[in-house]
Amino acid sequence: MEKLKGKPQVANCEGNANER
After folding, report:
1. Residues near 11 by Cβ (< 8 Å), separated by ≥ 6?
2. 3-state SS record for the chain
3. Are 15 and 7 in contact (CB under 8 A)?
4. In contact, 4 and 11? CB cutoff 8 Å
5. pTM of the model
6. Are 6 and 14 in contact (CB under 8 A)?
7. How far apart are CA 5 and CA 11, in angstroms?
8. Count of beta carbons in the 10 Å neighbourhood of residue 3
């Protein structure tokens, strides 16, 4: 979660898909 917080919201979406 900390990593996503540092990046923009758009990256958050991509990060979630990458994790899955």
Report:
1. 4
2. CHHHHHCCHHHHHHHHHHHC
3. yes
4. yes
5. 0.08
6. no
7. 9
8. 9
Only one residue has tokens 């898909």, namely: 17
Letter for the amino acid at 18? N
| 8's tokens | 């923009």
Residue 4: count of CB within 10 angstroms of its CB: 15
> Which pLDDT score, from 0 to 100, does residue 5 have?
63
Handedness of CA 6, 12, 18, 20 (dihedral sign): positive
Mean pLDDT (the chain) is 59
